[in-house]
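TL;DR need structure tokens for one chain.
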Amino acid sequence: MLDYLYLHGFASSPQSTKAIYLRDRLSSLKIPDLNQGDFSHLTITRQIKQVAAEFPPNSMPVTVIGSSLGGLTAAWVGEKYPQVQRLVLLAPAFEFLTHWLLRLGEEQLQQWQTEQYLPVYHYGEKRSLPLHYQFVTDAAQYQDEQLQRPIPTLLLHGRHDEVIPIAASRNYAASRPWVKFIELEDDHSLGNVLPEIWELIEAFCY
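>> reply
TL;DR here they are.
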């Protein structure tokens, strides 16, 4: 019996379209709220610890499915915990900090560092919430090249992703033969290819 965990993306929630779609098809799917009621102090480290605390008892194997920043978190959970026996990564946020900070620009980044909080639109809450600069300093320690545990991984990414360029996943898969990488005709949301995603997950996991 494999338990399944789904990790939603940055500034998202367990009520996201993908989370609900997969929950309806995987009866044993757990979807923790990675916001923990305190989005302002979110860090990747906090997410990793929270996810590990959700593992089933007695070292039962677990499959972690993650979207965007949840996908990056899933990869790190898989790296750190042998109990994770499979990963499904949906448009994972590899090279996340590089892309995000470039979009912010130097001026806004300096302002964030000075003022400590940056307003970020939260899609789950449908409003802007302040995010502490510790998010950046914490994320900086998670370098993709350190992810080297050969764990069976299904990696799905949209060719027209406007948030995390597909090149980030291509780079990741290129040096890791245990990763099955499939490019899809969609953007970052992957909302138009959900049936295709489910077919691929089913084939990979069963």
